[in-house]
Write a structure and sequence with these properties.
The chain is of the alpha/beta class and 277 residues long. It contains eleven helices and ten strands. The chain has a single domain, classed as Divalent-metal-dependent TIM barrel enzymes (TIM Barrel). The strands form two sheets. Strands 1-2-5-6-7-8-9-10 form an eight-stranded parallel beta barrel, surrounded by four helices. It has a two-stranded antiparallel sheet with strand order 3-4. The longest helix is centred in the C-terminal third of the chain and has 17 residues. It holds the Pfam family AP_endonuc_2. This is Sugar phosphate isomerase/epimerase.
Length: 277
């Protein structure tokens, strides 16, 4: 019986389906989901949904109830016992907390608390839109804690809607960079590939989307079926040798968008391996 189970496991590991489950990981692309995509549900349920989409990375956001028998929200000020419970929840699901955001603490004390949380939870990227006046403090703490802060771009009139405003605050600090939200660039009338080129060497995380049309009021669609030119975006990511978290942020059909995220992930991986749909 033991021999049979061993052979079955070896066969599974050797199968193309298993081996290609996350082909993008070979390039250092940590494809996951922003738990905000499942904001109608507790974090514990969001993890189950993310897992069902074939993803093993998550970006948490602070306003989500934790659930799973754990009181409180995914706030970076949660107490030590709650942090341990959340880490156990992640371990049970086999999902890594790669990023946290989007957050914008207003003073140094809260930023320090955020970095302490990120360090304890193993967060790689803090995705944020800090007040410009606090950027020296943010940069100092990022170097001290050796944790990346990725500047996210909400659409205009957000301060960071254009790559130039991101470049103006990150300087040459190796722990500061861009969380490139390609959908929000399109909403702002920008070309995502051109934006990535402008930010070359500074893109350390991404919010991934595809949109129905080039309009501020448009909505998400399955990746590869909209106007964001996903093959060209991926080609530019490959050219730049991008490495880091990529969060699926699907803000449409909130009650049941899991099937569309799953289809998006499949398309993403097909484009990655074959170069096109």
């Amino acid at each position: 019986m033991k021999k049979t189970l061993t052979l079955l496991l070896l066969g599974l590991l050797a199968s193309p389906v298993f081996a290609q489950k996350a082909p993008e990981a070979k390039a250092g692309w940590l494809l996951g989901a922003q738990s905000y995509s499942f904001r109608l549900y507790p974090f514990a349920e969001a993890l189950r949904k993310i897992d069902s989409c074939g993803l093993k990375n998550v970006e948490a956001f602070p306003g989500q109830n934790i659930g799973g028998g754990i009181e409180g929200k995914m706030d970076f000020k949660m107490n030590a016992a709650t942090r341990e419970s959340v880490k156990k929840l992640l371990k049970e699901r086999g999902i890594t907390l790669t990023a946290y955001g989007v957050v914008s603490p207003k003073d140094e004390a809260d930023w320090k608390a955020l970095f302490e949380f990120a360090k304890e939870m193993g967060v790689r990227n803090i995705n944020a839109e800090p007040p410009v006046a606090l950027m020296p403090t943010v940069g100092k703490l990022a170097k001290e804690y050796k944790i990346h802060v990725a500047i996210h771009n909400h659409p205009k009139p957000s301060h960071y809607w254009h790559p130039d405003s991101v470049l103006a605050v990150i300087g040459d600090n190796p722990y500061l960079g861009s969380c490139a939200d390609i959908g929000h660039w399109v909403r702002s009338g920008l070309n995502p590939v051109e934006c990535l080129k402008k930010l070359e060497g500074h893109v350390i995380g991404m919010h991934f989307k595809d949109l129905a049309e080039k309009s501020p009021k448009t909505h998400d669609v399955v990746w590869g079926t909209g106007v964001c030119d996903i093959p060209a975006v991926q080609a530019e990511m490959k050219r730049q040798k991008f490495k880091g978290p990529i969060s699926a942020e699907y803000e449409y059909h909130w009650e049941n968008n899991g099937p569309e995220i799953l289809e998006s992930v499949k398309n993403f991986r097909t484009i990655y391996t074959k170069g096109s749909l």
